[in-house]
Amino acid sequence: MEKVFIKDLQKFVDQEIEIKAWVSNFRSSGKISFWELRDGTGYSQAILSQASLSADKWQESNKVTLESSVKVIAKVSKHPKKEEYELQVEDFEFYQIAEEYPISKKDHGVDFLLDNRHLWLRSSKQWAIQRVRNTLIQATYRYMQENNFIKIDSPILTPNACEGTTELFELEYFDKKAYLSQSGQLYLEAAIFAHGRVYDFGPVFRAEKSKTRRHLTEFWMMDAEMAFVDLKENLDTQESLVRFMVQAVLENNQADLKILERDTKPLENIVKPFYRITHAEAIKKLKELGSQIGENDDLGAEDETKLTQEFDNPIFITHYPAEVKAFYMKRDDNKRALCADLLAPEGYGEIIGGSQREDDYEVLLERIKEHQLPVDEFQWYLDLRKYGSVPHGGFGFGLERIVTWVCGIQHVRETIPFPRTIYRLRP
Ligand code: 4AD
Ligand code: MG
């Protein structure tokens, strides 16, 4: 008997096959029962009729509960009206009859669902989200590989901060202190001198006290770094990568986007050029929209929401005042950082941060001191400006922010299998 996955059922019409799955829903009408089966690759309706099962089997089938695990032998048939394939069950066996399942079809509070995250992952929307996430990850690897980037795994345990010292997780490291990485960027800067273009993709950590719908304390970042590029080339790379990622989801995840009730029109827009405006222009626009933001302020989450609701495609905001950005960013003559944040439209906000890096030894040393960072710990990073320094730059995206936007959901916590926030470390 051929063992088949639900996603492949259309290839087996009229054949007898074996499916191993969970019962995600069921109903009965006298002499016929309908089980909705879920095997990880998709959903299919199994039809059990008293007439075609033995008396014992029919009786046993009535013991079914939500989430029971089963092996089913069935003949595949096409739904008379829809592009769906059904299973006419000939025999079945329970692996386990599940105990009463705590997550029912009724509305549960989000805290309850998060407490039961280990079970909630099975729900159809959560399933769809992880599938979109998977496509975005795979597309990233593909894009980077096809565009001459080498994957360099940066360390998680670090002796210094990358993105400012206020959001560092500190831990005992034998007789010293260590910090969990906030971004692999500084290490990637070292690796460009060996490989030209590099990236990493892994978990990073921020001791975020904020409890917004965009912040996690552990999230997945893809940092990319390139030798011999200016800010424009950096932005062009980000634009083509994001376009490639969204395109991959449109090609591979239509069914998932449907489960998520995602309007795909805004995603299809991605083929158009992204907007590019300066921080000063963004401030002007925000003031027109009624914001109280100051000329030299960073954009807060609310400002980003307000601003991006006005746009139908991602927006680069460039040239922030240097004082609101990180120590390593190169500046122009007007004390503006040669940087850009990429904001997703429809109110989603920042998904990428990137910049040109300061490549002059003396200037960088000055910045490290200005930011009151320990010069000793940055000596290796300063070294890079001594031995063949080059103009270079890069960016980092937050995977969960991109998944949130592409899925069109409200909160970043649903995009990672087991979210960590200020109030949540379990399960
Ligand atoms: O803007 P950030 O802080 O930039 C960096 O870390 C740079 N070193 C990256 C680089 O140039 N290689 O973080 C990058 C992205 C943000 O744009 C955002 O998408 C995401 O990481 N991010 C978070 N996502 C979830 N929860 C948080 N607490 C996040 N903080 C940043
Ligand atoms: Mg940022």
Protein architecture, described:
- With 427 residues, the protein is of the alpha+beta class.
- The chain has helices at residues 55-61, 110-115, 117-120, 124-146, 185-195, 231-252, 254-259, 265-268, 279-288, 301-308, 361-370, 379-383, 399-407, and strands at residues 2-3, 16-29, 32-38, 43-49, 69-78, 85-96, 150-151, 157-158, 170-173, 176-180, 197-205, 218-227, 275-278, 315-318, 339-344, 349-356, 392-398.
- It folds into 2 domains: 2-96, OB fold (Dihydrolipoamide Acetyltransferase, E2P) (Beta Barrel); 117-415, Bira Bifunctional Protein, Domain 2 (BirA Bifunctional Protein, domain 2).
- It contains 13 helices and 17 strands.
- The strands form 3 sheets. Strands 7-11-12-17-16-15-14-13 form an 8-stranded mixed sheet, sandwiched between helices.
- Helix 4 crosses helix 6 (231-252) and helix 4 (124-146) crosses helix 13.
- It is elongated, with a radius of gyration of 26 Å.
- The mean pLDDT is 96.
* Overall pLDDT: 96
According to CATH, the fold-level topology of the largest domain is BirA Bifunctional Protein, domain 2
Low-confidence regions: none
Form type: elongated
What count of helical segments does DSSP give?
13
